[in-house]
Design a protein that fits this description.
Helix content: 25-40%
Number of strands: 13
Strand order of the largest sheet: 1-2-5-8-9-10
Strand content: 25-35%
Order of helices and strands: HEEEEEEEEEEEEEHHHHHH
Shape: elongated
Number of domains: 3
């Protein structure tokens, strides 16, 4: 009896071992097939390549992520279905999941205040104007049935600046950055269409808050604060106080810092003091071989002496 039971157990154990071996073989084979399939895939360029552009406007980082369709001999914009995009049709302003724009701080877009965040750029092409729309939920892509009116944060008309030269591949830029770093344009070009949407940013409040906080813990920030006040036409008496405090440390009396102090002094009508400071800056600039500052100081001395 015991021998019979042992024999049956041996048979069962062998069957179980065989099943486990078969399972391992099948699993291993499937894994190999999967790996072979992955390696066998051919990489080809996307029909609409991914692209991005980023620019700092003031203290605001602005980035655009989009996909770039090509004309490929097609009529892109037009009044009827002979065109890829008929006038008046809502469009995701690019290919695939659409075009997204991100602002690191609040900004004015087309004169409308927009909070920091990422938005979907939607448009309605027209012969003479495009409707430009910012939508606060970029996940909808081209599923326009999901659009909710209260999520449209900007909806304005922009002029279609037609170009005689055709632009084969859709292009976005952040262009026309102003000298004072407070303005720029979102610039779109494709086929014979082109439009710009103005961007305005403000950084004065951010800078003033940093001046308040950081000058308390880092003496070097006093000169940065004084320079900002000089360049933006703020309280020059305060700027003078900060600059003088910074320059009480002998090692801080570099020619470029002294040049700023002289400009602040001159702005306050302290021409005699400004002349003395400029001469000190000139001497240090010559010792350092700093040719641009040698000329700046020499020109400023002539200007001060002419007054």
């Amino acid at each position: 009896m015991n021998n019979s039971i042992n024999f049956k157990l041996i048979i069962s154990s062998e069957k179980l071992t065989n099943k486990i071996s078969m399972y391992k073989y099948i699993t291993s084979s499937l894994t190999m097939l999967l790996l072979l399939n992955l390696h066998a895939q051919i990489n080809i360029p996307a029909g609409s390549s991914a692209a991005s552009v980023m620019t700092m406007v003031g203290l605001t980082e602005i980035s655009i992520e989009y996909f770039r369709p090509k004309m490929k001999g097609r009529k892109i914009f037009g009044p009827d279905r002979n065109a890829l995009l008929e006038y008046g049709d809502l469009w995701r302003t690019g290919a695939n999941s659409g075009t997204k724009i991100t602002f690191s701080t609040s900004a004015k877009i087309g004169g409308i205040e927009v909070s920091a965040g990422t938005y979907l750029i939607l448009t309605r092409p027209g012969e003479n104007q495009f409707d430009f729309i910012l939508y606060e939920d970029p996940s909808i892509g081209s599923n326009f049935s999901k659009i909710e009116d209260d999520k449209i944060v900007v909806n304005i008309k922009v002029d279609n600046i037609k170009s005689s030269a055709m632009i084969e591949t859709l292009t976005f830029q952040i262009s026309d950055l102003s000298i004072d770093n407070t303005q720029a344009n979102i610039h779109f070009q494709w086929a014979d269409a082109s439009w710009k949407v103005p961007i305005e940013v403000s950084f004065d409040e951010i800078v003033m808050e940093e001046i308040e906080q950081k000058t308390k813990v880092n003496l070097s920030n006093y000169m940065n604060a004084a320079s900002y006040y000089l360049e933006t036409g703020k309280d020059l008496k305060q700027a003078l106080s900060w600059a003088q405090l910074f320059l009480t440390v002998e090692n801080n009396r570099k020619y470029f810092h002294l040049s700023k102090l002289a400009q602040i002094q001159a702005g306050l009508g302290m021409n005699k003091e400004a002349l003395i400071t400029t001469k000190e800056s000139l001497k240090k600039a010559k010792a350092a071989g700093a040719k641009p500052y040698i000329k700046i100081n020499e020109d400023f001395i002539k200007k001060l002496k002419s007054k």
